[in-house]
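[recover] target loaded
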């Protein structure tokens, strides 16, 4: 049972038990202070060794409002006194009750801290914990964040977060564990009367900000982060499909997902039906003939960008007692709202568009609190936790998500049209083109089609290699969705261990190219692609 009356706020704490006996009076501290502008705190030193600052889970300190709010981000000044005051806060002259003297840093760390910070946006920073997931209060964002563009920047941050700071950016909380002052507090936590992350594998305040930001974008009750997109896929499949259960997936999908489904799940007695993304009849038959737990599919798919009718298949799944999970990595939460269309869960490899800079790995799953809690329980057992430094990079990256996706949508559409009209290109796969088999569907359920364009060169393996090697801007690499353009031949990058006959079963031909357009200038990319085509 979630307890909303207890609020945990994360800020900074001194190393325990320094010797404060030699400190002068509070008045002398005010008159003889050194100022540290990097942290915005005035701090006095009288021969006391510098204490070490860290983020504890239970920090409730009798500092003034101003001092508490100035404990911001990295490089915070060392705190050696806890009896400062500001106008109207703990100042008897201002008519407020005096702040009790603090005997030690340990007492300071656990003394009651009222949450009446001088702005209403710091109230109710943390209001619940559900199966180890500390949840923040997001109810007020809808009142002033109307667009996804604003949500990518401000959601889970502008109205306060699980860390008290006046820094604009969310601090990184690097800790592997969270302490309790006394055993009674630990018992209160275990009996659901108190909240805590308890251990680094179970949660982190920096990661909570990212989870809440993604939830806001997806319109989800809850989100869970993991160390990679593949980790997210594996944990949700294992959590939601019981031993001996049945799963449905599609022919076109990320190969590592297919390998896991084909080689690992059978060891748990799990069987799988594989259907074409657009074959609704085959999906219905599979649902009726098996006691299916989950239909797991990408939309758009990798690498042919096929689209699934999310609204229709969700109705079919629910009618037959199955859940629907959409891997929306190629779409992003900006181009497609899978949950609003009827999906029970939506997952992403955050490594791609969300991070957007080819510098961090991560994955997420969003949905109802009930389903995410089931996944979270197994995740806490298996591990695969996202590092808080990675969470920070994702938060940073998502602030430009709308700008990057807007540019990539535009470039992808224009390049798809250019390639389709070129005589040396045999076929183009892009949902925004009328020639795409699910174009009309994509127009209904997507607002943009992304920066990835797959196409077939009019030639063989070596002709295609020459085209790729003639390109000057994109990197030959895995992944997609970042600022830099990336190109690859799936036959080589992802399927080279299989003979050509096996690759052909999945329509991975030697002349297939997957091009992820970044945020470079369109005219530069156009010139580069055209010169490479002229080279073959």
């Amino acid at each position: 049972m979630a307890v909303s009356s207890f609020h945990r706020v994360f800020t900074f704490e001194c190393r325990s038990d320094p010797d404060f006996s030699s400190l002068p009076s509070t008045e002398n501290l005010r008159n003889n202070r050194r100022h540290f502008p990097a942290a915005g705190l005035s701090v006095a030193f009288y021969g006391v060794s510098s204490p070490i600052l860290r983020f504890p889970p239970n920090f409730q300190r009798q500092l003034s409002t101003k001092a508490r709010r100035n404990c911001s981000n990295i490089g915070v000044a060392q705190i050696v006194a806890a009896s400062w005051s500001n106008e109207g806060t703990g100042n008897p002259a201002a008519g407020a009750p005096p702040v009790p003297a603090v005997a030690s840093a340990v007492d300071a760390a656990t003394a009651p801290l009222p949450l009446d910070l001088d702005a209403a946006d710091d109230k109710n920073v943390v209001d619940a914990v559900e199966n180890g997931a500390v949840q923040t209060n997001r109810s007020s964002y809808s009142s002033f964040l109307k667009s996804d563009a604003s949500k990518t920047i401000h959601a889970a941050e502008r109205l306060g977060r699980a860390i008290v700071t006046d820094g604009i950016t969310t601090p990184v909380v690097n800790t592997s564990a969270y302490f309790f002052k006394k055993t009674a507090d630990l018992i209160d936590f275990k009996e659901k009367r108190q909240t805590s992350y308890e251990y680094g594998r179970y949660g982190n305040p920096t990661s909570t900000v990212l989870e809440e930001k993604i939830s806001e974008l997806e319109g989800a009750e809850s989100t869970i982060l993991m160390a990679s997109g593949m980790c997210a896929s594996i944990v949700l499949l294992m959590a939601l499909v019981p031993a001996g259960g049945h799963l449905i997936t599609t022919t076109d999908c990320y190969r590592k997902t297919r390998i896991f489904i084909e080689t690992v799940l059978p060891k748990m007695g799990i069987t799988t039906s594989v259907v074409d993304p657009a074959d609704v009849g085959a999906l219905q038959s599979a649902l009726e003939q098996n006691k299916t737990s989950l239909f797991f599919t990408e939309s758009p798919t990798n690498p042919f960008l096929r689209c699934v009718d999310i609204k229709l298949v969700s109705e079919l799944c629910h009618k037959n007692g199955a859940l629907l999970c959409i891997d929306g990595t190629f779409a992003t939460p900006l181009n497609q709202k899978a949950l609003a269309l009827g999906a029970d869960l939506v997952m992403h490899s955050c490594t791609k568009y969300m991070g957007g800079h080819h510098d961090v790995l991560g994955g997420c799953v969003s949905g109802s609190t009930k389903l995410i809690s089931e996944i979270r329980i197994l995740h806490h057992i298996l591990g695969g936790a996202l590092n808080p430094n990675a969470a920070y990079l994702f938060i940073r990256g998502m602030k430009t998500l709308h700008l990057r996706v807007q540019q990539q949508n535009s470039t992808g559409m224009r390049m798809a049209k250019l390639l389709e009209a070129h005589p040396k290109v045999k076929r183009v796969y892009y949902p925004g083109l009328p020639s795409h088999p699910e174009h009309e569907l994509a127009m209904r359920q997507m607002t943009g089609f992304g920066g990835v364009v797959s196409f077939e060169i009019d030639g063989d393996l070596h002709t295609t290699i020459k085209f790729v090697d003639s390109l000057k801007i994109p990197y030959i690499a895995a992944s997609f969705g970042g600022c830099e353009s990336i190109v690859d031949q799936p036959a080589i990058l992802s399927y080279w261990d299989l003979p050509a006959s096996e690759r052909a079963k999945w329509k991975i031909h030697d002349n297939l190219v997957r091009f992820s357009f970044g945020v470079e200038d369109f005219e530069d990319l156009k010139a580069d692609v055209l010169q490479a085509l002229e080279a073959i």
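[recover] notes: The chain is about 35% helix and 15% strand.
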